[in-house]
Write a structure and sequence with these properties.
With 234 residues, the chain is of the alpha+beta class. It has helices spanning 36-44, 68-80, 122-130, 171-175, 186-233, and strands spanning 25-27, 33-35, 49-50, 57-58, 111-113, 118-120, 139-140, 160-162, 167-169, 183-185. Strands 6-5-7 form a three-stranded antiparallel beta sheet. Strands 9-8-10 form a three-stranded antiparallel beta sheet. A two-stranded antiparallel sheet has the order 1-2. A hairpin with a 6-residue loop joins strand 3 (49-50) and strand 4 (57-58). Residues 15-55 form the RING-type domain.
Length: 234
């Protein structure tokens, strides 16, 4: 049987003391989890043993035991996410697009959906890959202004490029005012533009090289004239 994806917040695996992924996790009776080292250190420096998160008091001091189940879950998630950035790096930072579905601490969006008109982190994006209701949604790179990726006339995703009019259009445009025009995929249009820019850059660099060569030749001629003039003078 295929493993079910854990659609839970990554924040549940973060220690609220060190703000990093739980290591040797221990859980208190109030239901909060911390790194064994973090909670032990927190209590060692406190006169009363309290939960760092909800402030519940424990007298006498609890004997901390590793939460083996939670530890195995974290190990499994780490193993399945070796190619992904650390959890702490998934929090939204200046310049990032934030997930619209996160209700507490915001995570960095990895995709934007032009159908939902929202951006999602890796966890909240998962239904788009697994559910039939979302399989036809149009996903794109994270964008802070999704309206720029929609057709201004039909409010549909810009999916193709009209080479006749030199602009991105939606599929309704293809069937209406752009019928009979030369239409290509956005990827094809982007590659053609990149190749065109590459050729233009090569031509500019070639012209610069020719100019530099002429300047160097002129400089040598000037130097020769100077040397010749000095010799004639003496």
């Amino acid at each position: 049987m295929a493993e079910a994806h854990l659609l839970i917040s990554e924040e549940e695996f973060t220690c609220s003391v060190c703000l990093d992924t739980l290591t040797d996790p221990v859980s208190t009776p109030c239901g909060h989890s911390f790194c064994l080292k973090c909670l032990k250190g927190f209590w060692d420096h406190s006169q009363v043993c309290i939960c760092p998160q909800c402030r519940r008091t424990y007298v006498p001091r609890l004997e901390l035991q590793r939460n083996t189940l939670l530890n195995e879950v974290i190990k499994k998630l780490k193993k399945n996410s070796l190619d992904s950035p650390p959890l702490s790096q998934n929090y939204v930072r200046p310049g990032d697009i934030q997930c619209d579905a996160c209700t507490e601490r915001k995570f960095r969006a990895v995709k934007s959906c032009l159908t939902c008109m929202a951006s999602f982190c890796q966890v909240h994006l998962q239904p788009h890959y697994e559910g039939d209701a979302w399989k036809d949604h149009k996903l794109t790179d994270p964008s802070g202004n999704l309206k720029d990726k929609l057709c201004a006339k039909h409010q549909k995703g810009l999916e193709v490029f009209c080479q006749t009019n030199n602009l991105c259009i939606c599929m309704i445009c293809v069937a209406t005012e752009h019928r009979g025009h030369h239409i290509v995929e956005l990827k094809t249009a982007r590659e053609e533009k990149q190749n065109e820019l590459g050729r233009t850059l090569s031509e500019i660099q070639s012209r610069i090289g020719v100019r530099e060569k002429k300047v160097e030749e002129t400089r040598k001629v000037v130097e020769q004239i100077k040397v010749s003039t000095i010799k004639k003078t003496f």
